[in-house]
Amino acid sequence: MMSEVAQDEEKWLGAGIAGLQQNAFYMHRALDSNNLRDALKYSAQMLSELRTSRLSPHKYYELYMRAFDELRKLEMFFKEETRRGCSIVDLYELVQHAGNILPRLYLLCTVGSVYIKSKEAPAKDVLKDLVEMCRGIQHPVRGLFLRSYLSQVSRDKLPDIGSEYEGDADTVVDAVEFVLQNFTEMNKLWVRMQHQGPAREKEKREKERSELRDLVGKNLHVLSQIEGVDLEMYKETVLPRVLEQVVNCKDELAQYYLMDCIIQVFPDEYHLQTLETLLGAYPQLQPSVDVKTVLSQLMERLSNYAASSAEALPEFLQVEAFAKLNNAIGKVIEAQVDMPVAGAVTLYSSLLTFTLHVHPDRLDYVDQVLGACVKKLSGKGKLEDSRATKQIVALLSAPLEKYNDIMTALKLSNYPRVMEYLDNGTNKVMAVVIIQSIMKNNTCVSTADKVEALFELIKGLIKDLDGTFDDELDEEDFKEEQNSVARLIQMLYSDDPEEMFKIICTVRKHILTGGPKRLPFTAPPLVFSALKLVRRLQGQDENVVGEEALATPKKIFQFLNQIIEALSTVPTPELALRLYLQCAEAANDSDLEPVAYEFFTQAYILYEEEISDSKAQVTAIHLIIGTLQRMHVFGVENRDTLTHKATGYSAKLLKKPDQCRAVYACSHLFWVDDQDSVKDGERVLLCLKRALRIANAAQQMTNATRGGSGSVTLFVEILNKYLYFFEKGNPQVNIAAIQGLIELITTEMQSDTSTQDPAADAFFASTLRYIQFQKQKGGVIGEKYEPIKV
Which UniProt keywords apply (predicted)? Predict the structure, then answer.
């Protein structure tokens, strides 16, 4: 059906163009022979093709443009005629004898253009005559194109200031009156289009009307180009007349488009000075008009104006722009009861952007906008409309981007209240935006109160808002979120130890609500923040601090113990063990022996009861040995207890090579360079001999199971330990033991059953080169190494 209509239209258009071209041909012939009467006859017949009602506006435009081109040639002919002595007044009278009104008016407009140019009559009289005569065409499409033609031919002949057509009788007021009158009539015709034809074709007609909107809008553009339209005239005449027409037409499409046109074509300073008048029209628009978009564009233009010109800022204060915009938005939302939440939030978002550009120092204005938004959202519950939530994120992000400081946002009482309306997913997105802002600007959050407020804002990342964990959340996304929280915890700092301890306690209160899945991410940074505080307090006399002080090393260590204990519910024993050992080392540096011993005890309990994986055990035992070796705070009894336990764990590891390495690592627990009290050569030797026995047993097991003697790597490693303690002056590690070990390794490597291991061979060769190098050094070291034969 539609294709048939389209084919018919093409056929009618083709017929119209053919008729137009035929008459244009005869018109040109008459023009060439200077036959005015025939030229007018054929031009009238040519223009009669524009009387059709069969074409859609799109097709009619094609026909109109062809006629327009021909009329340009006719206008040039009329100019030539006047130069040759033909009276323009007679010509103006003559064209009015055309039989049909539409061709008559097109010809009248064409001659009228030449008439004004001749200056034989005041421009205002000709313009008034033409605009009044055009009322003879009331068909919407034909009338719109006729008046568009009138606007086109007259735009450069208006009696504007500085124009050649300005005179005693012609003023800019006449030019404005002409354009306004033409605009009013065109708008009426445009609005009337919606009522032409059956109701079932309403959608099609609205589309056609939309295509013609620029014909009407051009009048406003012409008005904006008139030099004589100053602020006073715009305020007193132009804007009230245009707004009256916009409001009274009661048409959704016309109101939306024309309000947008007003904003776009007239200068920003005019909008600012007439803000009250302009904003007064918005609540009077039809409820279906998309006011939010138009009003948002107005605020955007004013924001850009403020940003581009510092001199303009006093004007904004003078006209109380914020109060007027805020009031207008309230009235629009009140008038449009069916406005969706997304629309209202968009308006407040635009108002907030305007406020941040124009009044960045007025936090009360910013909070007022957020408060108005909360009022609109109250009773709505969590928002599920994606457009609304997107606008709220934009609303909440704007202060962060403007001030580059979360501290400013924390001063806004309504900021967290707006966040309450975000769904869980968007709440997390906003929390990440807040954290990223802190990271980007390196913001230091330095008081417990601010930390409390901040963690209230980002609680979507700290805990499950509805009490249940979101199983659908991608594991990588979850890790990234929690890592961002961990980075945030590191940014919390105060120079005052008391305040810093309050901050740490506040963070603990929040992260403990996060459940077992989050604690492994959030507890470690908190532990290390507390340990930093401990190191700041080292050497501080507790008597000076006083009994009432919150931040003492002992109190902080009690706090740390509670945090790490919470990790045991996760369970992540390996992480908890590492943190206990870190705390033990900090207690060691603070000379708190009982505290350090307690942390080691907890680490040992975890090792015994929770860590069962053999690889995890190996890692854990080496961490324990390494930490214990650095401890200087323990007395003989405590150190012996812990060392004995560590060596016992080492010997009980599952794999022989792991046993061997852990046991020879324990030798360092009995010989510490900077502690004269920990230099027990005999026990070092016992560890090394025990390691040798285990290495030998490992060799025999390999031989039994695989038919070869296996690698000598363990023996070479033990040899290196012997050399280390030999250099350090351990009297129990002598030349004979080293020589015997070298010979043992050499024999094993030369054995027929030994497995080829290039890495072990290279390791042994490197060790021998080291011995040779030490010999060549001379001095005490050289003498020491001299007896060793390699």
Answer: Cytoplasm, Endosome, Golgi apparatus, Membrane, Protein transport, Transport
What is the pLDDT, as a whole number, of residue 703?
A: 78
Angle between helices 123-133 and 172-192 (to 10 degrees): 10
- Are 752 and 771 spatial neighbours (Cβ–Cβ below 8 Å)? no
pLDDT band (50, 70, 90) for residue 545: very low
Q: Where are the beta strands (DSSP E) in 258-318?
A: none
- CA distances, 725 to each of 341, 708, 719 (Å): 77, 32, 10
Q: Rounded to the nearest 5°, which phi and psi values hold at 671?
A: -150, 100
Q: What confidence tens digit (pLDDT) does each residue in 382-393 have?
A: 877 788 888 888
The Cα–Cα gap between 461 and 634 comes to 42
**Do residues 54 and 108 both lie within one domain?**
yes
> In this predicted structure, what is the pLDDT of residue 650?
94
With respect to residue 542, please indicate whether it lies within any of the assigned structural domains.
yes
Q: End of a domain among 556, 578, 602?
A: 602
Task: Write the pLDDT tens digit of every residue in 523-544.
Answer: 999 999 999 999 988 866 554 4
In terms of residue numbers, what domain contains 378? Answer: 286-414
Q: CA-CA distance, 784 to 601, in Å (whole number)?
A: 41
pTM: 0.74
Q: Are residues 396 and 469 in the same domain?
A: no
DSSP secondary structure code for residue 754 in this structure = P
In the predicted model, is pLDDT for residue 326 greater than 80? yes
Q: How far is CA 435 from the centre of its chain?
A: 12
CA angle 242-236-328, nearest 5°?
65
